[in-house]
Amino acid sequence: MRVDGGLAEGVEPARGVTTGSGGEIAAAWQRVKRRLRAELGEDVFASWFARLELQEVAGGVARLTVPTRFLKSWIESHYLDRVLATFRSEADGIGSIEVGVRGPMAPPRAGAPAPKPPQAVRPAPSHSHPAHDAAEPERAGRPSETAGDLGGAPLDVRLTFDSFVVGRSNALAHAAAERIARHDGGPALYNPLYFHAGVGLGKTHLLHGIGHAVKAAGRRVIYLTADRFMYGFVNALKTQSALAFKERLRAIDVLILDDVQFIQGRSIQAEFGHTLNALIDAGRQVVAAADRPPTELESLDERVRSRLAGGLVVEIGALDEALRASILQSRLEAVRATHPGFEVGPAVAEYVAKAITANGRDLEGAVNRLLAHATLTGAPVTLDTAETAIRDLVKNREPKRVKIEDIQKLVASRYNVSRSDILSERRTAAVVKPRQIAMYLSKVLTLRSLPEIGRRFGGRDHTTVLHAVRKIEKAIGEDTALCDEVELLKRMLQD
Ligand code: ADP
Ligand code: MG
């Protein structure tokens, strides 16, 4: 992970950024957006961050702007910590961030490099994002606290055990979470407790649920996202108080770590390993979640992986239709608390629960769109209007499967080499770069494991693939031309 604020080559500074090193800050901001996009996914990014702009950095305060009040409050209540942590890890001297609403007459960064166009990737109907804005639903979801100087992230008050709907695919995870949360005294039960599941299947919800319950029982809990964890350590190491930081970390009963797959960097993962060992050996409960099982956390070393795998590992499966229907009902009820006139009949609800198969996040998006529609038109939600309102969510439910062979062919033709060159032993630069890009794309666009990818690239070792993936990841962060090139390849493969 980069912690310096170095200027990436070829990145133009944003105009209007008033700071001593505007170019550097602007470049760092571009990296922040790129990381948010990569980490949160195209959908979330397009909904919330595509129109987030950096206005200036002055006196350690980064001022960001968005076009609407709703976007502002949503980002503030859901993503402020994340944006701050990401920005801090990309640039020095960022103390805090503020989000403001920019007027229609004042484009924030005239002449700045055009933002990456998420809209172009997935042309969304015009109701897609602005609908959120137009509806401006009241949000009860304010962070309930800030977790003091340990650098913990706040818990979202909406994500409790009460609001978590239990079904077949998450029953075991839920039961384990409740056991942990209610356990007091005595050695930890399963340590660590590790959840894994694809995006939007309720990991974060369960983790926050544990956090609330542990706190309510008067025990000390800290919830950290990977970024928080990395930022905490990077910062602590910088100020030479790593020891004090670790001491403070040990003074807690339950440590919750979300999105562990993003923890990376040699020194950080070593610290991560020490922290895990120290906490577990001291009988403190550790709960972690990631998008994959511990064995597939390639950015962590073997010992850390096996420590994570050494407790109870629970997978949360896809939401079946019954579960989707219940989650949808509970969401609708929650919205009705603030919008009493909002009615969605059983036929429409059934249609939505059938159509949105991907995950809980899309269900939430669907409810927001229905609400926006109802608020804007004042008309009752019919099957017809529901169908239009959620069309893009439905279309997206089955992303195209990309084949490694297609990646190799496309990359080869793009770089004027042959596919057999890519599979060969040749190590000339003309072949190595496309080969590494193809390996990188295979990792990000397919579900294949590193060893499998290695096999498909002429029987290479998985460490070779990992090296390629890291190398390209790093290069993308530093070289905008390459970043664009890789984006383009991705789009060509996915269209
Ligand atoms: P993850 O962290 O696994 O990506 P989240 O916990 O953020 O997923 O869930 C995405 C959305 O779906 C959240 O709004 C969450 O409240 C909702 N959700 C997921 N599973 C459930 C569930 N079992 N009950 C209620 N809401 C759920
Ligand atoms: Mg999550």
UniProtKB/TrEMBL annotation:
Keywords: ATP-binding, Cytoplasm, DNA replication, DNA-binding, Lipid-binding, Nucleotide-binding. It is found in: Cytoplasm. The keyword Ubl conjugation does not apply. The keyword Nucleotide-binding applies. Residues 1-21, 102-151 are annotated as: Disordered. Residues 375-495 are annotated as: Domain IV, binds dsDNA. Residues 130-142 have a biased composition (Basic and acidic residues). Pfam families: Bac_DnaA (PF00308), Bac_DnaA_C (PF08299), DnaA_N (PF11638). Residues 189-318 form the AAA+ ATPase domain. CDD domains: AAA, Bac_DnaA_C. Residues 1-135 are annotated as: Domain I, interacts with DnaA modulators. Residues 403-472 form the Chromosomal replication initiator DnaA C-terminal domain. NCBIfam families: DnaA (TIGR00362). Domain I is involved in oligomerization and binding regulators, domain II is flexibile and of varying length in different bacteria, domain III forms the AAA+ region, while domain IV binds dsDNA. Plays an essential role in the initiation and regulation of chromosomal replication. ATP-DnaA binds to the origin of replication (oriC) to initiate formation of the DNA replication initiation complex once per cell cycle. Binds the DnaA box (a 9 base pair repeat at the origin) and separates the double-stranded (ds)DNA. Forms a right-handed helical filament on oriC DNA; dsDNA binds to the exterior of the filament while single-stranded (ss)DNA is stabiized in the filament's interior. This is Chromosomal replication initiator protein DnaA.
